[in-house]
Each structure stands twice: as structure tokens, then as C-alpha cells.
Amino acid sequence: MSGFESVSVSSSGEQLAVRIYPSTSVIPAPVLVLCHGFCGIQNVVLPEFAFAFAQAGYNVITFDYRGFGESGGERGRLQTKMQIEDIHAVVNWVSQQPSFDTSRIGLWGTSLGGCHVITVGAQNPLVKCIISQTAFADGEILITSAMSIKEESKLFSTLNRMQEKKESSGRELFVPPLMVLDDEQSRVFFEKHQKFNPQLNTKIPFLTVREIINYKPVIMAMSVRQPVLVVAAEHDIVNPPDQAVRLYEALHAEKTIIMLEGAGHYDVYEGDTHFKVLRHQINWLGMYL
After folding, report:
1. Is it the case that residue 119 has pLDDT exceeding 70?
2. What is the pTM of this model?
3. Domains, the chain, ranges and CATH?
4. SS3 readout for the chain
5. What mean pLDDT do residues 233-240 have?
């Protein structure tokens, strides 16, 4: 028994692969939509969260973004605008399901998904609360802050040339995700999960770097009005904790921040840190969803 139901939801003409993890409650229960991170697929790490939240009394929805996992669309095409559209499509679909308590829809996002849920929450009044886990506030600062002026100039020059080539010829360079996420924490995580989930081997455009540089969810954070829980990891070298703190400080809504001491970016997905963060999140959801 899988423990979930598979359905399809349309987003801009493509079909999203969606899973419903039903609540253990016998009455219509609130809904929590889980949004994955950079190149993530719903078969990896999300089931552990989904089952825990369902056991706590929530209907849980996971999905693959367009171009990833089992969803339609061009393979590996990672654009923040498209992924935000996908989340809106899922939330809007959820709001039309009579078996859910659609007056209580929450968003949960991890890593890049933690950025998206801030953006969608600011835009979509159907969302009643938000959990943003190990996200970043400003993509340009994230990518360039440790670079010298010369290194930064070289990167932007390369990206500009690639963009010009794409516009003139329609051709662009596709690379493995680990050429963009080139830190040790990411390498260990991806290599571990790629063995059992070959869909993680999808290549992405190198111009995805430009997408991240131009993405500044901290700006949208100022427009969020729902309660927000921000989760940061002390030793996160992918999205350093100061980025999450910046996101938190930009929020004008009711807000809470949790700093996971001694934890790296991927520690939230397993072991003691995983169970610790789940307890925090379930307790928080009990107050706001």
C-alpha cells in the first residue's frame, strides 16, 4: 500500500504529477502543500514529511514541478516564474476539492521551495500560513557575496554571452545540478539519492544560475500577511542562515524563526534534526492551521 493517491493537475497546459497523503482525521481536515527545492522530486525526502503531517491530522499534497520527476514539460527547465505558477495551480486545485477543509490551506517549502512559498503566500489569499525551511533571501548576494570583483565580472560576462547565444540560436548549455550546487553537502546528498532515484540525474540549463541571481524573495516577504515559520540551519553552506534571518526580518506578518544548532542544509531531511524540526513544525501548525 503506497499511502497516497496520485492525480494530475494542469499548470499552463502541462500536467503536474500530484500526490495526496490523506489525513488520519475522519472529518474534513486542513491541507498542507509541500514544495520541493532545487531540482527536487516528490519521491525524495518529501514522503517522510508528508506521512508525519498526515499522521498529525493534515491532508498533505506533494507534486513535481514542470520538467521534473513525473510531471510534463521540458526536462530540466528550471525557471522560478514557472515553479511559482505550478504552486499557484496546485493551491487553486486544492481549494476546489470538497473532501478538504479548503478554508485552511498552508504552504510548506524547503530550500528553493522555501523561497517560492514566501512569494506565493504574498500573492495568493487562499494561503493561511507558511513554513519556509532553509531558504534564501537574495539570490544575487547568495551567489556572488564570496566572489572577488574579477570573479563576479567574469560570471556575469559568461551568463550574458550564454543568454545572447540562446536568443540568437536557440541553443544553450545544459549541465548536471552539481555544476550549479557545487558544495560538499549537496554532492553527498545528490549522489546518495541519485542511486535510487535516476530522475534526479536530469540536466538543467547553466542559465539557471541567472534565474537564481535575479530571484529576491526578500522583496515579496514584505507583502506577506499570513503567519510564517522560518527554519534556518546553523551550518548551512548552501543557503547560509543569515539569508533566512534576512527573510525573517523582512516579514511584517506574525512570524517565528527556529535556528537548528549544529545542522547543515540537508540535515533537516534525516536523523535527529529531521525529527526535531518536524516537532517544531507540527506544534506551530497546531496554532496557525
Report:
1. yes
2. 0.94
3. 5-137+216-288 (3.40.50.1820)
4. CCCCEEEEEEECCEEEEEEEECCCCCCCCCEEEEECCCCCCCCCCHHHHHHHHHHCCCEEEEECCCCCCCCCCCCCCCCHHHHHHHHHHHHHHHCCCCCCCCCCEEEEEECHHHHHHHHHHHHCCCEEEEEEECCCCCHHHHHHCCCCHHHHHHHHHHHHHHHHHHHHHCCCCEECHHHCCCCHHHHHHHHHHHCCCHHHHCCEECCHHHHHHCCCHHHHHCCCCCCEEEEEECCCCCCCHHHHHHHHHHCCCCEEEEEECCCCHHHHHCHHHHHHHHHHHHHHHHHHC
5. 96
